[in-house]
Amino acid sequence: MDKKELRNYYKQLRAGLSEEEREQKSLQIANQLLKMPIWHRENYHIFLPITRLFEINTEYILHILHGKDKNIILPKMDGDVGLLKHILLTEQTILKQNHLGITEPCNGIEVQPAQIDVVFVPLLAYDQKGNRVGYGGGFYDRFLSNCPVTTLKVGLSFFLPELKIEGVFSTDIPLDYCATPDGFFRF
């Protein structure tokens, strides 16, 4: 399937999960992350879920990051230029929903992509080579292209990978890993 077809298909699949199923699967994904060789780093970038789009609840991962005393960095959309800013989460950080219903920091210390060690990447679908399908805005591909090659890119998905995604562009940045409720894939 091509990206458009995959977007529609996986949006429907996610919407078909009950709230209880999404919560259980989100917790299982967090537990799978604990088995991965990614915890020796310091700076972790993580998205906050868009609940109306039935995304993975990343609160469980936030608890792990806090417990491991990691630096947590949250994305903030700069929609005027189609880029993300990256804000260090501290006790003083104020979170608020933007016009798209995405919870993001209003204030805080900006972190440059070169400083980020691990990125938990939102996605709708991915394939066996680590190619991913997001919402189509390109925010994460532009962001990831500015990260060092050593930055680990970790997808989070309720579902198994597709065999192949049709229409992958040279500007699409593949994942290094993807965690699912039942395990994880390394690409």
From TrEMBL:
Gene Ontology process terms (BP): folic acid-containing compound biosynthetic process; tetrahydrofolate interconversion
Cofactor(s) demanded: Mg(2+)
Residues that, per the record, bind ATP: 3-7, 132-140
EC identifiers of the protein: 6.3.3.2
Binding-site positions, substrate: 50, 55
UniProt keyword terms in alphabetical order: ATP-binding, Coiled coil, Ligase, Magnesium, Metal-binding, Nucleotide-binding
Catalytic reactions on record: (6S)-5-formyl-5,6,7,8-tetrahydrofolate + ATP = (6R)-5,10-methenyltetrahydrofolate + ADP + phosphate
Pfam families on file: 5-FTHF_cyc-lig
Sample GO molecular function, one term: 5-formyltetrahydrofolate cyclo-ligase activity
Source superkingdom: Bacteria
Coiled coil regions, renumbered to chain: 3-30
NCBIfam families: MTHFS_bact
Family: Belongs to the 5-formyltetrahydrofolate cyclo-ligase family.
Name the UniProt record assigns to this protein: 5-formyltetrahydrofolate cyclo-ligase
Organism (species): Capnocytophaga canis
